Amino acid sequence: MAEHISTFSGVHFAPLAPHREDILVADIAHALSLMTRANGHFPEFYSVAQHCLDCAAEAKEEGLTEREQLACLLHDASEAYLSDITRPVKASLPEYRVIEKRLQDMIYEKYLPGGLTDGETQTVRRIDDACLYYEFLHFKGERLFAEQPGLARMPEYEIRPFREVEEAFLRRFKELFSNCSE
Question: Residue ranges per domain, the chain?
């Protein structure tokens, strides 16, 4: 059995022994635009890429730095190579969490030199959880947390063609990355 996956761009990517040069934003954008949130249990298609775009838009609306916006955009990028596992299951898979963290940290390091600070990590987690809360409220009518988190902007939960979302992800990435790397 192969110890790699073949990505959209044709890279043979080894998820358990990743190489930084094999991480391509085109692969991330493509894969995340086709992956569903909530493990496919929403009544409509809403992609991980849309969620990431919403997280980045929330960071912008809050007046956060472009670096923090880029961190929000990329926060689920490891899922492009590993897929996702629902939170209740992931909590009982410590080795998966190690693999996921190692890859996610490598992605952050590639596109955000120095990786994330503890404060940036907390900011991303806060925005991710808030967006998750409102996704479940919108799509399922469920309140995931006892306290309703605040958002500076409400996302628009529209069904969008995956290619449109993929292109929007790439455009936003290019804007933010070029400004962060100057």
Answer: 22-180
| Terminal alpha carbon distance of the chain | 42
C-alpha distances in Å from residue 120, one per residue of 66, 137, 180: 12, 26, 14
Integer Cα distance of 35 and 6 in angstroms: 16
Tally of CB atoms within 10 A around 141: 7
Instruction: Answer positive or negative: Cα dihedral of 15, 19, 22, 23.
Output: positive
Q: Is the model's pTM score more than 0.90?
A: yes
Residue range 22-180, CATH number: 1.10.3210.10
pLDDT band for position 182 (50/70/90)?
low
Give the pLDDT confidence score for residue 2 in this predicted structure: 66
Integer CA distances (angstroms), 83 to 5, 16, 80, 107, 138, in order: 11, 13, 6, 15, 24
Judge contact between 129 and 148, C-beta under 8 A: no
CB atoms near residue 158 (< 10 Å):
8
Residue 46 and residue 71: Cα distance in Å, rounded? 20
